[in-house]
Each structure stands twice: as structure tokens, then as C-alpha cells.
Amino acid sequence: MSDYRRASIPGGTFFFTVALADRGRRDLIEHIDLLREAYADTAGARPFATEAIVVLPDHLHAIWRLPEGDSDFSTRWKEIKAGFSKRLGVRRPRSASKQAKGEVGVWQRRFWEHVIRDRADMAAHLAYSWGNPVKHGLVARAVDWEASSIHRDMRAGRVPPEWAVPDGEFGE
Question: How far apart are CA 171 and CA 128, in angstroms?
């Protein structure tokens, strides 16, 4: 059995990539209302600050800041994924292992996380998140993608209206 080690930094800030099991599906956009409900329910029960989020058809990127003394982002993602899956109400093809664990085959089993180290790292991951719809050819400009926190941050004055991903770089 694999031993997955996750960063444990109470009150830390983290960048995440969370994907559907079938990367060709469009469930996250087609059922974004269900994702929003699951996300809000989890954030209500286990608070965290969403510094940024962008939802694409088959995956999402998010930057979270956890409360002081709390390092448990894994349970939060588990609850978001389970909440979305229950609301979606479908079962997808899945392995015997996933069946045995009661998984319905909507999500990839795990997710990727990265600890945000400093302001430059945060800026790079914000640009990556917001620029991801451009990278995937979904829109020409980051502000043209509706399922992104860039709009919230522009309204709050944290991002200039002319923000664009410089020279096509996405922080990879």
C-alpha cells in the first residue's frame, strides 16, 4: 500500500489541483451549481479561506488558507468530492478497489497540493490558476472565463481590470 505524505502546516496556504476520473467529461462546468453547493457546505462546516479558484470542465485549481491551528485540507476535499458526487447522482466505471471503498468513479482518487512559500510563489500560482482556461484554449483572456475567482478579486480591487497572463507564461 502506498504511503502518501501530505504537508501538515497549521494555518498554511496551499495550491490544489483536483480532477475528475474521466478527464474528458465536462461535469464540473455542466453541474457547477452542485459543485458550489458541496463546496459551500464543506466551507461552512470546516471553514477555510478561498484565495483563488478556477473551475474547468474536468478539473479545478484552488488556493486555500486554512485557519490557525488547522492543517486538515484532505478531509475538506474528501467532503467536497463526496458532496458533489452525491448531488450528481451517477456511478461511473470504476475499479474493484474503488467499488470496495464505496467510490462512485466521478473523481480521481487523490489530488495534488503544493505549499505556498512566499508572495512570489502565491503570485505564480494565482497566475497559473487564472490563466488555466487560456492555457486549455477555452477562452482568449482569463477574464472571459466565468468560473473563476478573478472576477471577485477584480471587483474587490485586488486585481487590476487589465490583468492578463504575461507572454503566455503560466508558472509551470
Answer: 6
